Amino acid sequence: xxxxxxxEFVEHQDRGATVAIGNFDGVHLGHQSVIELARxxxxxxxxxxxxxxxxxxxxFAPDAPPxxxxxxxxxxxxxxxLGVERLYELNFNTALSxxxxxxxxxxxxxxxxxxxxxxxxxxxxxxxxxxxNAEDLQRFGEQYGFGVTIAPLMEYSEHAVSSTAIRNxxxxxxxxxxxxxxxxWHRIEGTVIGGEQRGRELGFPTANMSIDGLHxxxxxxxxxxxxxxxxxxxxxxxxxxxxxxxxxxxxVVPNIETFVFDFSGDLYGATLSVGxxxxxxxxxxxxxxxxxxxxxxxxxxxxxxILAAL
Length: 310
Hints:
It is a single chain. By secondary structure, the protein is an alpha/beta fold. It has 2 domains: 2-156, 3-Layer(aba) Sandwich (Rossmann fold), CATH 3.40.50; 185-308, Beta Barrel (Elongation Factor Tu (Ef-tu), domain 3). The chain is 31% helix and 27% strand. The chain has 10 helices and 16 strands. The strands form 4 sheets. A 6-stranded parallel beta sheet has the order 1-4-3-2-5-8, sandwiched between helices. It has a 6-stranded antiparallel beta sheet with strand order 11-16-13-14-15-12.
């Protein structure tokens, strides 16, 4: 998959694509339906996705609480798995955010990227102040020579599938409901970093990863699927993970600590993708290490049972 970040400097081979446009946070089933419409809109044309980095919400409210379901690298990996050939990950900056809807259609879509066809959701808004909507884009498409398809919103349990609904499910400890909207397990991806070795001392060595900048799921213990994406231990595993601040040890910075079942080796520096399958219990403070260890044994046994049924 080729990644293009500047619409003013585009190689010939990256023009003429059929593109789904949006932020694609989570790459949920609604996003996937938009991408599938783009795939069918112009057979033979390169399949592309246009998105923005940083996320416009981060750009306009940099001090707001973290909300992203996935980092840009994780999103790119997911899109590539869906067969996307061109990722137009445009730099969202003052110049781009200042374009009127017509300027965006003309300067970015038509003249800059030379797109043949674009697909957007029915709730799509674009241009300065989000002044343009999907119908405006259709009108500009007729004017500037590109096709436009408007995708209907997808529903789950009588509600629209959305990144917001998925965040709510994760905040409430409902990863299975999040999966129904995502079409895949919600995954936290990142590099394994050094910790305080407390898990190892307790007999449960963990792979620690930052969740900085990401939406925080309900703090607690989960049954998880673990993919090691690189290094000598590359492969798929199962485990139990704790998401939170470690109240037993006075922690304040949220992270995810994953105990990989039946594993022996060094994962420091490796990239892990941890899929949240089932919420087992909230994080809590115990009255001693023996009580904590007994609960961790019980958590792992429960996680093994749940994962064995997949």
